[in-house]
Amino acid sequence: MDFVAAKSDDDKWTLAQITEINIYPDNKILANCFVLGRREEGMLKVPRIPIKPASLVYQASEEQIRNTLCLKDKGLYLGMLESTTSVKFYIDPDDVITKHIAVLAQTGAGKSYTVGVLIEELLEKNIAVVIIDPHGEYSALSKKNKKANEKDLEYYGVEPKAYNINEYSPDTTINRNASKLSFSDISLDASEIVSLFPTKPTPTQTALLYGAINELRAIKENYTLTDIINNVQANESNSKWTLVNLLEMAKASSLFSKNPTPLQTIVKRGTASVVNLKGVNEQLQHTSMCKLLEQLFTARKKEQISPLCLIVEEAHNFCPEREVVSTSKIIRTLVAEGRKFGFGVGIVSQRPARVDKNVLSQCNTQVILRVKNPNDLKAISYAEGITKQAEEEIKSLASGTALVLGAEIPLFVNIRTRRTAHGGETQTLTETKKTTKENQITHFKISDKYLNVEDPGVKFIFVPCYELNITGNTYMFDAIRGNVLHREDNIIKDNPLKLSNHEKKITGNLIESNCTKEELFKKTNLSFSEFSHAVISLIEKKIIKEENNILFFCLNSMNQLPKEKFSKSDFKFEKEFLDVKILGSKILDNLGILKKTNISLVYYPYINIGNKLNDATVN
Questions:
Q1: What is the pLDDT of residues 479-515, one digit of tens each?
Q2: What percentage of the chain's residues is helix, strand, coil (to nearest 5)?
Q3: Is 111 helix (H, G, I), strand (E, B) or coil?
Q4: Spelled out in words, what is the top-level CATH class assigned to the domain 78-90+100-183+270-282+336-351+358-365+400-426?
Q5: For residue 103, what are the β-bridge partners?
Q6: pLDDT digits over 91-125, tens only?
Q7: Which of 230, 305, 586, 590 is the most buried (most CB within 10 A)?
């Protein structure tokens, strides 16, 4: 992929790019090149007359590369061209705002990292950024990159830096560090209200809703959800009660407030507003994002907010190809009309084939990292018309290297080191080896009679466990499978802890305090059916119980056992310490615990005498 140059008969330089190198048995080295051409009258043209055989070929200088390819020397700095010549690559910020951009890659290829670089550059240019963040990973833009390699920072010419980040969420019971994202319920139309319902209303119920709104509009300008509910209740139709129930659920969704979030606080020049949707149920995600994007676009058309760039992570969920969700229409409108009003859109996805082709084709700049799925490659080719050769290159791109489309020719770019911390790192499922010394030497107390055992046939096996203390109770989990441990008839037994996301929301709230069904329903932001099924399932699993309409967390606890600290070398008998397989954070996540909680790693000893296992703590 290096650039070379040679002179033609008219003494003008022609630029080419090495595509293949062959080494033969006689040590002859031949390189095949793709001729890019030369700049003539502002156009990149390939000479009609080939360069003479045996002409000298030189490594192209930065000036030759930049002038021939008409590369910008300022703008959004993404990285370096993949070349032995140091050539910085920039994107025009106006192209991002007026012509939109897509970042496409398979998982683990550097997609989120690249988007982080793009956002840093937008903020450097004092552009307002709004990020739809389903995984809560972009809040890290507020922290400096402390893991960066000094040589990489020097090579790319960047320094660690933190940026102004505002975090919002429609559900702050899950994302507690975020400010509440809420909207006004004044003068909602019927379609907006229906989008809040967990189930589609019947034609009769829809007619009742439209009738109620039309009546209210005739008598008052600013009506609320409460007004609509009262109007429907006054109707004599037998179908009204189900509709009233749906309206009450919509009102209880906590999406609306008398003090809605001002759009001017979300859109600020030089600031990124992260809408954290981590853990938020799918229906609430789509409803809240649909309202937010519609209000932002309306405000931008009226010039009530500054120009902005909207980044849509996991875009295949918000504008899918084969179905229509509530956010589909507004995103299509934004990519089609947003350029006229200074409303840029960045589409980010690991599944290009599942993104609406009408949306993807509107992104004039595409940053493509490694993609191997044939359907995804086909979707990229459809949108940009790239060659078969380029498709093959995309399959084997190294992590952090991107093919950038949108200029006259595709260019390979090594994405620069980030200034900010990366919040989208892949999490390991096994405990890291860098455990603290304290964790390495903390074990349960062993009875003295076992410490003096000299029988060579006796072997101690230490099983890693997590001890979790919550509201005065001690819970134990093995650190190999994540099962919950409890004592029954002086025998330690284990049960798997497999909870759905809906069940985790319930346990996460009940661990903190007992509450009524009604209180818990409001806290979880689940639909009525989701909430009911999750509660029934948890009661059947004996993880929660209900008494007098109060729900309790009733997972089997274990009395806290006395501990002493030993070094592994202190044991003179034969011993084996089993490896930790699950992170403590994974145990907390399995319970739906989101806030920082004290969880410690300890070792539980068993004694293997022949083929018999005995509990070492039993005296």
A1: 888 888 887 777 778 788 788 888 888 888 888 788 8
A2: 35, 25, 40
A3: helix
A4: alpha beta
A5: 348, 367
A6: 999 988 889 999 999 888 889 999 999 999 999 99
A7: 305
186 φ, ψ (degrees, to nearest 5): -80, 130
| Angle at alpha carbon of residue 362, lines to 360 and 367, rounded to 5° | 60
Q: What is the mean pLDDT of residues 26-53?
A: 88
What are the strands of the beta sheet with 3-7, ordered from one edge? 43-45, 29-40, 13-23, 3-7, 58-59
Give residue 527's identity as a one-letter amino acid code. S
Average pLDDT along the chain: 84
Distance CA 392, CA 386 (A): 11
Q: Name residue 602's beta-bridge partners.
A: 465
pLDDT at 222: 87
81: nearest Cα among 403, 300, 385: 403
- What pLDDT score was predicted for residue 124? 96
CA nearest neighbour of 254 among 48, 524, 38? 524
Which stretch of 11-25, 329-343, 405-419, 551-565 has the lowest confidence by average pLDDT? 551-565
Residue 137 · residue 424 · CB < 8 Å: yes
Contacts of 469 (CB under 8 A, 6+ apart): 475, 560, 598
Which residues neighbour 467 within 8 Å (Cβ) at sequence distance 6 or greater? Answer: 474, 475, 476, 560, 599, 600, 601, 602
- Please tell me the distance from the alpha carbon of residue 524 to that of residue 500, in angstroms, as a whole number: 13
Among candidate residues 448, 458, 454, 460, the one with its CA nearest the CA of residue 605? 460
Please answer whether residues 601 and 442 qualify as being in contact, where contact means their C-beta atoms are separated by less than 8 angstroms. Answer: yes
Alpha helix locations (H) across 234-384? 240-251, 263-266, 282-301, 315-318, 328-337, 357-360, 374-384
Q: How far apart are CA 419 and CA 314, in angstroms?
A: 23
Question: What are the φ/ψ torsions at residue 550 (nearest 5 degrees)?
Answer: -105, 130
Domain ranges, ordered by start, for the chain: 3-70, 78-90+100-183+270-282+336-351+358-365+400-426, 190-251, 437-615
Centre a 10 Å sphere on the Cβ of residue 368 and count the other Cβ atoms it contains.
26
Terminal Cα distance for the chain, rounded: 71
More confident residue, 51 or 449: 51
Q: How far apart are CA 358 and CA 335, in angstroms?
A: 9
Sequence-distant (6+) residues with CB within 8 A of 477 are 465, 466, 468, 483, 484, 485, 497, 587
Token duo for residue 525: 């932001």
In this structure, the dihedral spanned by the alpha carbons of residues 357, 363, 364 and 365, taken in order and rounded to 10 degrees, is -120
The tokens of 408 are what? 């006259």
In the Cβ-directed half-sphere of 474, how many Cα atoms lie within 13 Å? Answer: 13
Report the C-alpha gap between 328 and 344 in whole angstroms. Answer: 16
For the segment 381-394, the average pLDDT, to the nearest whole number, is 71
- pLDDT tens profile 260-297: 999 999 999 999 999 999 988 888 888 899 999 999 99
At 449 the pLDDT is: 64
Q: Residues 196, 291: contact at Cβ < 8 Å? A: no
The pLDDT score that the predictor gives to residue 198 is: 67
Separation between Cα atoms, residue 266 and residue 451, nearest integer Å = 63
Determine the 3-state secondary structure of 443 from DSSP. Answer: strand
How far apart (Å, rounded) are the C-alpha atoms in residues 269 and 308?
8
CA atoms within 13 A on the CB side of 396: 4
Measuring CA to CA, which residue among 256, 257, 253, 263 is closest to residue 284?
Answer: 253
* DSSP assigned state of 398: P
